[in-house]
TrEMBL record:
Pfam families found in the cross-reference section: DJ-1_PfpI
Record domain DJ-1/PfpI: where: 7-172
CDD domains attached to this UniProt entry: GATase1_PfpI_2
Native organism: Kutzneria viridogrisea
Membrane-spanning segments: none
Superkingdom in the source lineage: Bacteria
Protein name per its UniProtKB record: Transcriptional regulator GlxA family with amidase domain
Amino acid sequence: MTKQLGILLFDGVEDLDATGPWEVLAYWTRTWPQDGYAVSTFSATGQPVTCAKGLRILPDHSYADSPPWDVLLHPGGRGTRPMLTDQAHLDWVREQRAAVPLMTSVCTGSLVFAAAGLLKGRPATTHWASLDRLAELDPSIEVRAEDRFTDDGDVITSAGVSAGIDMALHLVVRLAGADRAREVRRSIQYDPLPPI
């Protein structure tokens, strides 16, 4: 039975928060389907979403027709700001926590997890500009300012934007092993050597 990885999309999602992990996970699952995983995207309605920088994406699923997720990834971006007080969305996140074995976030997606109570007493990180907000939302969180990602077993959070690629490669390590993750990293030529 193929296990399902789901990437949540919404208006105002930070483009690379979603597409960075998508590149890693889609390359892995499509190149090595024998590993037993598939990745797809979904949104509340299944209608196209407009990302923070204007990229438009058509999700694969809506909430209603999504498969049961084995891993759920909640990206960040400007679209997460209203989610912090949207009780319907926070209730949905809590419902997912009860059903999904592994919840992950990129960037300010962790703020949503914090607002929903998922990070109580856990280590977590987020975009550097939102670290104080993470601590304000739940003072019991062990905020990891220097970490690219934190893995606390059934919840993984990552820092901002490009850190989602590192987190997704870590997911491949967890789900398919370090050798497979190295193959994926080499294949997508993710070898960061910033020019500045």
